[in-house]
Amino acid sequence: MEVIHQRTMFDFHGVSMSKCFTDNWDEVQNFKARPDDILIATYPKAGTTWVSYTLDLLYFGQTCPERQASIPIDERVPFLEFSKPSVPAGKYLADRLPTTPRLIKTHLPLQFVPKSFWEQNVRVVNVFRNAKDNAVSYYHFCRMSSGMPEPGDWNTFLQNFMEGKVVYGSWHDHVNGWWEKKQTYPKIHHMFYEDLIEDTGREIDRLCSFLGLTPSAEEKERIVNEVNFDNMKQNPMVNYSTMQSMDQKVSPFMRKGKVGDWKNHFTVAQDEKFDEDYKQKMKNSTLQFRSEV
Ligand code: A3P
Question: How many other CB atoms are found less than 10 A from the CB of residue 2?
């Protein structure tokens, strides 16, 4: 019998995936969403943790501060499709969340999202990040996380990223799928990593108006401060230092937190090739990104 290693990538209904994110498939597909759930949906490394923590503070920062002090973010905001022997599956954690709303994270491309989310008309928060910084961040994450396929060197990884041969598949397909969903499903809020960097307070205001939340000025100020990169980097409950599968000495989870770090990685030749490929793949898309702010 063929044994598939946890880190091995394979084609899963047309998308490159690995066991950790597909092993619990039937359970995940049968997930029972509730109308007041909030789904945080992103391509990996787009700013998921940043927005997850912001949402957690908006909903529970006042009422249960001990939650922020003692429960790691991956338990407060379970990763729906994640499953690995020896740790509780994301679906299991999500089912048992005691909070209302339940904040749930997924990296699934649109077509893989369990149908119950749509049936229950669940609110979705998407976070998008420009492809170049997203690729760089993903590369370093694959280096430090033992759960991800070996990235090889930067040039190899970048080529694979362009071809969609990374876990969760093509960045282009992923972002376009979620972007277009808004045309038929209004309960989606689109956020951009670059906008968050530019003005976190403004983006929190927009998020609150989507969610119907009205934090006081002091509360908002406190959240803006808490979710600042340096504070999150120091915070063991959100910096993933509790996660054994991540070697933060290879590359910290809270790595740089910048727009434009791609310039430190892309050669001129890589940049030209990437732009050419990008133009082709995004030619029918209205989705616009900023690669610098
Ligand atoms: P870098 O590797 O570019 O530093 P995700 O949570 O989706 O895995 O995304 C991780 C990326 O978001 C990392 O990017 C991380 O540093 C960045 N990030 C997390 N919190 C941030 C914050 N408060 N401000 C800026 N960037 C943040």
Answer: 4
